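Folding problem:
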Amino acid sequence: MAMADTEEGSDMGGGADHAAGDSGGGATPAAGGGSTFGNIRFGKVRDSAIGFGDHNHIVNGGQAAPCDPAYEELLDAVRQLAEDLRRVVPSPEVGALSDELDRTEDEIQRTGRAGAGRLARIRVMLQDASASVGMLASGVAVGQAVGALLGG
């Protein structure tokens, strides 16, 4: 199997110094780490998405999905509340809300939206953590954005 070399001399396989031997096993890499399996050498891979096998769906997470304005507003409010929660006295409710906010931010960045189930969980978690979150303007903003998206 011949493969092209990548930049900076970090070979992905092929080439004279990376050719597989007659026995079918891979040669020891000449430079720069990685492991050799059969005729394929895995070296450095940066800023890329790679799939192996049939029926792959590859998404390179380097770019954010486009958001409609309502989800953009929610994303901004979620980020602000997550930052504010770092300064609140820790509790199980605050920890659960913080974790859900992190997952919500990730989902909006990947897909451009957050599912109704996730929004409903945030609403309940805001109520559960109301003793800690109730006086935070960012908590009110998240509650309003979630309410607008869920219709109430």
Summary: Residues 69-150 form one domain. The helical segments are 69-85, 92-111, 116-128, 130-133, 137-150. The longest strand covers residues 35-37. Confidence is low (pLDDT under 50) at residues 1-27.
